[in-house]
Design a protein that fits this description.
alpha+beta, two-stranded antiparallel ribbon, binds zinc ion
Length: 145
């Protein structure tokens, strides 16, 4: 008899606690006012909507400024990379850097990059011991000048 009565009393108290919480909340809202709550909820909703839009537009602007699409100058592999980050071609391994919307080779100071147009090799056999190979190379100035 006693445990049953105790459980019933406990359930009654929990129901009263719920009603008491509702009454305290209603009293707070009516005395302080609900305007600040609505304003803060409105600010929160505006922030939740505007922050992702600003982030998406900003990231697209940054990508449009810094993403470079082009071909490897050594092997003509199509590449995509970021402007400030030096990279290497995944196909041929040449060190590359994006400059003026295209990829250029990263070369040590003093290296001259030229385009070879025609190579003719003529082997003349003058004798048994002296083999002379004549190679004609046409060299053009760099393409980006
Ligand atoms: Zn390459």
């Amino acid at each position: 008899m006693a445990p049953n009565g105790f459980r019933q009393l406990q359930l009654n108290f929990s129901g009263m606690g719920c009603w008491l919480t509702l009454a305290i909340g209603f009293g707070l809202v009516t005395t302080v006012g609900i305007g600040w709550l609505l304003k803060s909820l409105l600010v929160l909703v505006i922030l939740l909507i505007s922050v992702p839009i600003v982030l998406i537009v900003g990231s697209q602007f940054w990508l449009r400024r810094n993403l470079v699409e082009g071909a490897c100058p050594a092997c003509s592999q199509p590449l995509t990379g970021f402007r400030p980050i030096p990279m290497s071609c995944p196909n041929c391994g040449v060190a590359l850097q994006a400059k003026d919307g295209a990829f250029v080779r990263v070369a040590p100071e003093g290296t001259i990059d030229v385009n070879v147009v025609n190579v003719d090799a003529v082997r003349t056999d003058a004798g048994d011991t002296d083999e002379v190979t004549i190679v004609d190379v046409d060299v053009l100035p760099p393409a980006d000048s």
